[in-house]
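FAQ: What does the model actually see?

It sees only this:
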Amino acid sequence: MAKIKVYYDKTGKTLTVWFDEPTKEYVCEETGEEVILIKDKEGRVIGFERLNFVLEEEEVGFAFEAVSI
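And it is asked to produce this:
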């Protein structure tokens, strides 16, 4: 089963989401919209980071939906 890792850094105001192991990070690509794509050696996106992300404590929660294609 695949695991998604989500990290929120309140001090740095970043939200980082990993679809694969963080140790596979090889290069990062800025999108210009305060989002950084994290890629492995083959150029596959294995995560992303959202900059200037502020999460109010009353907003903490999580919803996930899986869709089969």
